[in-house]
Design brief:
Blueprint lengths: L2 H14 L4 E3 L2 H7 L13 E4 L3 H14 L3 E4 L16 E4 L6 E5 L4 E4 L5 H10 L16 H6 L7 H4 L6 E8 L4 E4 L12 H5 L7 E9 L7 E8 L2 H15 L3 E6 H11 L11 E8 L3 H16 L3 E6 L3 H12 L1 H4 L6 E6 L5 H15 L4 E7 L4 E7 L6 H21 L18 H4 L2 H14 L13
Parallel strand pairs: 2-4, 3-4
Antiparallel strand pairs: 1-2, 5-6, 6-9, 7-8, 7-9, 10-12, 10-13, 11-12, 11-15, 14-16, 15-16
Helix pairs in contact: 1-3, 8-10, 8-13, 13-14
The structure holds D-malate (MLT) and zinc ion.
Length: 466
């Protein structure tokens, strides 16, 4: 966008909201105009740092009046470009809204501002002998507002569900500049449409979350982690079933041998065991007594005899459990230098072997020159397909080459009744995939909903629905 137009937007905001912190320095525009995706160049007009609900409401009202597009911004750890400002938008950063507002021990709820970091919520809950169960690799910098706007998933969805399942109430400023209070922490509320759930996963396209009330739960029992060398994908399904039926798993993750090689190289990790197999499973279960451990070992023996697994290790301490988790949680960071092109796919768990087999064949024939890694949350059907950029290929060419195969990946996903975005959202990068997962009627209804909450298309325009 032209510099004069961007300056005009920044000046308008400064004159109407002199009390707001508004930054137009290049370094801030660049850092706050993008997320973890590296396929779009930031081009923001300004970054605003509201400190209160009132600040956000005033800002949105001015934006509505002057048709200034706004991009909500949290920890900027998103992987689909949902927080990218590349068309002269004004970024609304929630960095200054980091207060914990209320803890209610009877209701077991925590009310927070949107800029509170996910890990701070987990720690606050733990200090009160409670538990916030949503967990993922970027929890040290991602913010709760962004988690809610993208319905973040992570590694313990199998036991505790998604972010959606933890949200007991929301306050939102919608695209009309109105403050909506959506379910004020109630457990039961049969009073019609639950607007809270429209905002969860809406990627900031309907409004901005300014306060959230989260449910906390019982702290988990001491846990054990096993890393298993698995002989095939079919075997992975059997292993999942055996262990989940016997132990009620809290997590069941998987990684391919190539992903294992990269995480080891990236973090200098030793081989976790002697045997090499095409896939590895990382599973976690509550284990408060010797009987549970015995059941786990029995399942391991059984899987060994059946030829499902070739080897395995089990943690004997919290430190060992954390070490084993690194083989899975460290992958994303280990491969950032390769500018990975990510597809975040999901199917029903029972469908994974057939789907991944089809996808793998497609990847081998259509990406013969690219290395493709598989890992993800097997226990909830979520596969992360990461295509690594060869060092000598320019990013734009790489993105184009990957994008050319997308329709085939999406078509295959549709054929297996899956979703082209499991937990990373649609954002900017996955818009072309939306019609493969949602029907034309669905998308039309979504546009209708958008028009109700944000008739002037002020809220994160160009994302999700375009
Ligand atoms: C993960 O599960 O590691 C994250 O979703 C990030 C990624 O896909 O790399
Ligand atoms: Zn993930």
């Amino acid at each position: 966008m032209r510099t004069e137009q961007k300056s005009r937007r920044a000046e308008l905001l400064k004159s109407h909201c002199p009390e707001l912190e508004i930054n137009t320095k290049n370094a801030v525009l660049e850092s706050h105009g993008c997320d973890w995706t590296r396929f779009r160049k930031p081009d923001a007009a300004a970054v605003v740092f509201p400190r209160s609900v009132h600040d956000v409401q005033k800002l949105v009202r001015v934006a509505v009046e002057h048709r200034i597009p706004l991009v909500p911004s949290g920890g900027r750890t998103g992987l689909s470009g949902g927080a990218v400002a590349d068309a002269g938008e004004v970024v609304v950063s929630f960095e200054r809204m980091r207060r914990i507002i209320d803890f209610n021990a009877v209701d077991r709820t925590l009310t927070v501002e949107p800029g509170v970091v996910t890990q701070a919520i987990q720690e606050y809950a733990a200090q009160r002998n409670l538990y916030y169960p949503v967990s993922f690799a970027s929890e040290g910098s991602s913010q709760i507002g962004g988690n809610i706007a993208t319905n973040a998933g992570g590694i313990r969805v199998l036991r505790y569900g998604l972010t959606r399942d933890q949200v007991a109430g929301l306050k939102v400023i919608d695209g009309r500049g109105e403050l909506l209070e959506c379910n004020s922490g109630l457990v039961k509320n049969a009073s019609g449409y639950d607007l809270r759930h429209l905002f969860i996963g809406s990627e900031g396209t309907l409004g901005m979350i300014v306060e959230a009330t989260l449910r906390l739960t019982d702290p988990p029992l001491p846990s054990r982690v096993m890393l298993l060398a698995v002989n095939s994908l079919d075997a992975m399904t059997q292993v999942f079933r055996q262990f989940n039926d016997a132990l009620g798993l809290t997590a069941f993750e998987f990684l391919s041998a190539a992903a294992m090689a990269h995480v080891r190289a990236g973090h200098g990790l030793p081989a976790p065991m002697d045997t090499a197999t095409p896939y590895y499973a990382l599973l976690e279960f509550d284990c408060a007594d010797a009987d549970t451990e015995e059941r786990a070992l029995q399942r391991f023996e059984y899987c060994l005899e059946e030829g499902h697994v070739a080897d395995g290790v089990i943690s004997q301490s919290e430190a060992q459990a954390a070490d084993l988790w690194r083989y899975r949680e460290g992958i994303s960071e280990a491969i950032t230098g390769y500018t990975p092109y990510k597809n975040d796919l999901s199917v029903r768990i029972s469908e994974i072997p057939a789907y991944l087999d089809d996808l793998d064949q497609l990847a081998k024939s259509r990406y013969p020159d690219f290395e493709v890694l598989w890992y993800g949350h097997f226990g909830d059907g979520n596969l992360h397909m990461n295509i690594l950029k060869p060092a000598d290929l320019p990013v734009e060419e790489f993105e184009k080459a990957c994008g050319r195969v997308n329709p085939e990946i999406f078509e295959l996903t549709r054929a297996h009744h899956g979703s082209i975005s499991a937990e990373h959202g649609i954002g900017l990068l996955k818009k072309a995939g939306l019609p493969y997962t949602r029907s034309a009627a669905d998308i039309e209804r979504m546009r209708g909903i958008k028009a109700v909450f944000d008739p002037l298309n002020i809220m994160n325009p160009g994302k999700l629905l375009g």
